[in-house]
Design brief:
The protein has 221 residues and is of the alpha/beta class.
Length: 221
């Protein structure tokens, strides 16, 4: 049994997702509103934090150092703690080298966690713009729906999608250009800027899956 999310297609050649995210942040900061990132709790949340920490270190996104970053996902927080504890066995060479230089991907000065429901609600009443990373990744459940309800209608807000949005999900409707969406029974206008970052997918395409199978010493029948 093998997963085959992209088994019938080839990934398009895209620009480095980190570069795409960098430009999206630069644009969002100029706009002056919140940045909302729907992200899967395991993997995508940590990858996004990894890139943010690098942007802070190299100064490639002016103004980013002034924006608080919130992880608003209990599972995302727990998963991030596991990534942090088990880094020695799982980080690649680049990540290990950066860590040795003192870059802490999950404990930088502007990072905050919203564990309780009250802490989550408080994010929507901040006086200055923030980056909000919340799940679920396709916007169909979880705390992300509250953040979309509070930000989709704001013209200076930015919604950045960093993961696949399946047909029929709230995230896909927004990405496909819906003028309004229904959240918690309320019709919300979509006036925020919608950005899509391609290339973050952890799923192999047709070529990658076939290559993986070919590496078996004992081939499946």
């Amino acid at each position: 049994i093998m997963e085959s999310t992209y088994g019938n297609r080839f990934h398009r050649e895209t620009k480095d997702p980190a570069d795409q995210l960098r430009f999206a942040f630069r644009d969002a900061i100029k706009r002056g509103g919140n940045v909302v990132i729907p992200a899967f709790a395991v993997g995508r949340t940590q990858e996004t934090l990894y890139d943010i920490s690098k942007f802070l270190e190299d100064g490639s996104v002016p103004g980013l150092e002034k924006m608080p970053v919130y992880i608003d996902s209990p599972l995302g927080i727990k998963a991030t703690n596991i990534f942090e504890k088990c880094y020695l066995n799982y980080y690649d060479k680049e990540a290990l080298a950066l860590r040795d230089e003192g870059i802490d991907f999950f404990s930088f000065s502007t990072l905050n966690v919203a564990q309780s429901p009250d802490e989550s609600k408080a994010i929507n009443f901040l006086e200055k713009p923030a980056i909000i990373i919340s799940s679920s990744g396709m916007c169909d459940a979880g705390r992300i729906k509250h953040h979309l309800k509070h930000n989709l209608w704001k013209e200076n807000a930015t919604i950045i999608f960093v993961g696949y949005q399946a047909v029929g999900t709230l995230g896909r409707s927004i990405l496909d250009g819906a003028k309004s969406v229904k959240i918690f029974g309320e019709r919300i206008l979509v006036k925020a800027k919608i950005q899509r970052i391609e290339g973050f997918s952890g799923h192999a395409d047709k070529a990658g899956l076939l290559k993986w199978i070919e590496e078996f010493d004992v081939k499946p029948k």
